[in-house]
Amino acid sequence: MAKPWTTRRGSAPVAEDGPQVITATDVSFTYPGADTPALEGINLDLKRGEVIALVGENGAGKSTLARILTGLFLPTAGSVRWDGVDLADADPAAVLAKVALVPQDYTRWPLAARENITLGQPRSEGDIAVHAAAEAADADSVIAALPHGLDTSLARSWWGGHDLSGGQWQRVAVARAFHRDAPVLVMDEPTAALDARAEHRIYTRLRALAEGRATVFVTHRLANTRLADRIIVLDHGRIAETGTFDDLVSRGATSIFFEMLKLQEDR
Ligand SMILES: Nc1ncnc2c1ncn2[C@@H]1O[C@H](COP(=O)(O)OP(=O)(O)OP(=O)(O)O)[C@@H](O)[C@H]1O
């Protein structure tokens, strides 16, 4: 039964070593005031150690599903459970503490480069962890070029900081997620503003970073989905196809994924 839009949350704890599995059951989601649902009848499991790629046309529901699986939004029908605990009943702070998210609209904090990566949550390894995350996100060259390294303010230059390009900022945002020692990693088009070399570097490191985590990434560049264990193709808010890259390609012209891939390759 459809529930109204709700921000009501519970206080149930989330397992210390969880989530081992994230389960969406008959999930639908309608934005407040919208006539049509952004997601409808979504069923899926995401296990720790798995990497899922979400693909589909603009407006298909990819970002919405990424937010639903991590408890940022609660479904308006159906449920999302982490190890059996419905996120509607869970303590939202405990849930969010377990999520590292690179949203499409990441924030450019007017703080030093270090704080833009740690967000005030330094790891016990200190700057070693910051540099490791930066390297994995291909942001090490960005930091090396800053006049005062990690101490450089990334506020706008008219405030006395150092300006970064859109692609450089995006690498810092990815480093932020990699720095967070969270078991759920969600990246919504993490490389949209990146040049081909930086994008390639991030995706070649993603598999290692995803180890032991439940990872979801959204991408429009379908070649990136080769590294996923499973691809989920969304179409108008529904799951249209799922499978590995090879599975979907082998379906040929009957597959939406195959058709999208052909269009990209013919470009
Ligand atoms: N804040 C919002 N309020 C109302 N409707 C929204 C909102 N955000 C998204 N939608 C609608 O929900 C649907 C799914 O949007 P969503 O952003 O999840 O798609 P997407 O597949 O991530 O798209 P894109 O590839 O363009 O990023 C779309 O029809 C969109 O217009």
UniProtKB/TrEMBL annotation:
The keyword Nucleotide-binding belongs to this UniProt entry's keyword annotation: yes
Alphabetical list of CDD domains matching this protein: ABCC_MRP_Like
Keywords carried by this UniProt record: ATP-binding, Nucleotide-binding
Domain ABC transporter: 22-261
InterPro entries, per database record: AAA+_ATPase, ABC_transporter-like_ATP-bd, ABC_transporter-like_CS, P-loop_NTPase, Type_1_exporter
PANTHER family assigned: ATP-BINDING CASSETTE SUB-FAMILY B, HAEMOLYSIN SECRETION ATP-BINDING PROTEIN
Protein name: ABC transporter domain-containing protein
Native source species: Streptomyces rhizosphaericus
